[in-house]
User: Fold this.
Amino acid sequence: MSSLWYAQRVAEVVSVEHDPHWATLVRAVAPENCQVVLATEDHDYLDTISGFEAFDLVVIDGVRRTEAAIAALGNLTAAGVMIWDNSDWAEFLDVFPTLQEHGFKRIAFSGMGPVNRYGWETSVLYRDENCLSI
Assistant:
């Protein structure tokens, strides 16, 4: 539901979903500034971002997160920022040095998640000149 949350706060949201049922649910309640793209195949899911103009903000919160972050590198503005949900999961830790090589710094926020009874981490990955003025 983060797409709907962002849609209330930014000019435009493009949400890439791999699950047809979930895409239908989000589309049913999405405002006009929220486009939901269904991409069920891995290569389509990862390539979808390249079909849009560069983004100021990319949220990594779906399937194939490591590969999606690498794909997003080519479609972020110079001031672009990534927000990575569940960045503490062991399967994602190998990609952060690669992102660092591309000039990204990382701020990790840990705490209770909004729908679970356990803590998790969300990271903001940014470069020196970024749209959040960090």
Notes: The chain has a mean pLDDT of 94. Residues 17 and 47 are 12 Å apart (CA to CA). The two ends are 25 Å apart (CA to CA).
